[in-house]
Amino acid sequence: MKILVTGGAGFIGSAVVRLAVSRGHSVVNVDALTYAACLENVASVADSPLYAFEQADICDAAALKRIFDTHKPDAVMHLAAESHVDRSIDGPRAFIETNIMGTYEMLQAARAYWTEAGKPESFRFHHISTDEVFGSLPDDPAVKFTEETPYDPRSPYSSSKASSDHLVRAWHETYGLPVVLTNCSNNYGPFHFPEKLVPVIILNALAGKPLPIYGDGKNIRDWLFVEDHADALLLVVEKGELGRSYNIGGENERTNLELVKTLCGILDAKRPKASGSYADQITFVTDRPGHDARYAIDPTRIRAELNWRPSVTVEEGLEKTVQWYLDNETWWRALQDRQGVGERLGKAS
Ligand SMILES: NC(=O)c1ccc[n+]([C@@H]2O[C@H](COP(=O)([O-])OP(=O)(O)OC[C@H]3O[C@@H](n4cnc5c(N)ncnc54)[C@H](O)[C@@H]3O)[C@@H](O)[C@H]2O)c1
After folding, report:
1. How does 289-314 read in b/e, with b if 16+ C-beta sit within 10 Å?
2. Is the shortest distance between the CB of 158 and ligand 1 below 6 Å?
3. Which end of the chain, N or C, is more open, meaning fewer C-beta atoms within 10 Å of its C-beta?
4. Distance (Å) from CA 7 to ligand 1 centroid
5. How many C-alpha atoms does 11 have within 13 Å on its Cβ side?
6. Active-site residue 121, yes or no?
7. Ligand 1 atom nearest to 184, measured from its CA
8. Which tens digit of pLDDT belongs to each residue from 205-249?
9. Would you say the C-alpha torsion 191, 196, 202, 203 has a positive or negative sign?
10. Residue 4 forms beta bridges with which residues?
């Protein structure tokens, strides 16, 4: 299959690109190379005859038309987005432009290309979204996000992603564009940009800096190893039912404090401090405004219909992740100079 992946120089997109090429798919990676991108993430496939890169902004209709006409993909996997909630609080405009207008331009470009090609039923527009569109759950393990949960986004990031999900469904209902959607929980793993919680904790711990925990650390997230997410996404683009959405999660609910303590324990074992534990560096800081209390995915549909299972537990995945950061210092050091990295963002006023 020839897949046009948007955002393939980012964290999850690059995992999709690497996995797709390793499985023999052709990939066209379309990425604007924003502050969050790193072409090093796809260096392992860059010389493959199955891989092509196009630097383009998904808001640029003319560039998208040229890319579709040149590469003639069988499917689109649309991951390009502004993705950091804290940045969406400080500067929501970029989230509206890329996540909403960019998705609109992608849908229009895909629709024109698909129509020109005679509307093949086999074409897929796979929109990759987040569980954050569903809002915040009560602290009750029996209640989880299903595909039927009503949307209730609460941050500029999640509301822009929710808008894009609605656009994708509308292009299916109105124009018949063959779409599939996925909503996934929090990812972690190799190549995670060093402004997100897991890398921040690992890198601050190693640098002897405070490990910042928002509020009381009791916010719960459902953690999934990025390579398991990439595997689920390829399954959905190949076998997902037309017009259907799938929730993806690892059933690994942890409070932020539990997650951070687990990371500290792994680091204590792998790179012991001269004295004490990395957990001694934990520092509670002012909470994020509108911080959702709990996210948890019910993955019954993707398990039952597509037989998907994550390959690692959260403990195994975190262990692999910590080891990756210990082994790849050159990668993360180069990104620490980028604008905003290492600063406290998203406090609002
Ligand atoms: N990170 C998570 O835990 C998570 C969970 C569920 C869903 N998602 C979704 O998965 C997707 C990828 O997330 P991520 O964490 O890999 O993000 P990321 O920030 O690491 O990467 C985003 C990529 O998109 C590119 N991009 C941004 N704006 C662009 C534009 N206008 N035109 C072209 N390219 C542009 C960036 O250059 C970057 O390479 C997003 O749509 C996000 O909403 C993320």
Report:
1. eeebebbbbbbebbeeebebebebeb
2. no
3. C
4. 6
5. 26
6. no
7. 6
8. 999 999 999 999 999 999 999 999 999 999 999 999 999 999 999
9. positive
10. 28, 76
Angle at 16 between CA 12 and CA 17, to 5 degrees: 115
Cβ–ligand 1 contact at 26 (below 6 Å)? no
**Which ligand 1 atom sits nearest the alpha carbon of residue 84?**
19
Percent helix, strand and coil across the chain, each to the nearest 5: 45, 15, 40
Question: How far apart (Å, rounded) are the C-alpha atoms in residues 182 and 129?
Answer: 6
Per-residue confidence (pLDDT) for residue 349, from 0 to 100: 66
**Which domains are assigned to the chain?**
2-190+224-251+292-311 (3.40.50.720)
80 lines ligand 1 (CB under 6 A): yes
Using a 6 Å cutoff on CB, does residue 184 contact ligand 1? Answer: yes
**How far from 93 is each of 32, 40, 188, 235, CA to CA, in Å?**
17, 28, 26, 33
CA 270 to chain centre: 27
Q: What is the C-alpha end-to-end distance of the chain, expressed in Å?
A: 48
Q: Which of 131, 195, 222, 292 is catalytic?
A: 131
Q: 151 catalytic, yes or no?
A: no
Is residue 132 part of the annotated active site? The answer reads: yes
As a whole number, mean pLDDT of residues 269-295 equals 94
Q: What are the residues whose beta carbons fall under 8 Å from the beta carbon of 246, sequence distance 6 or more?
A: 147, 180, 181, 182, 183, 232, 236, 240, 301, 302, 305, 306
Q: pTM to 2 decimals?
A: 0.97
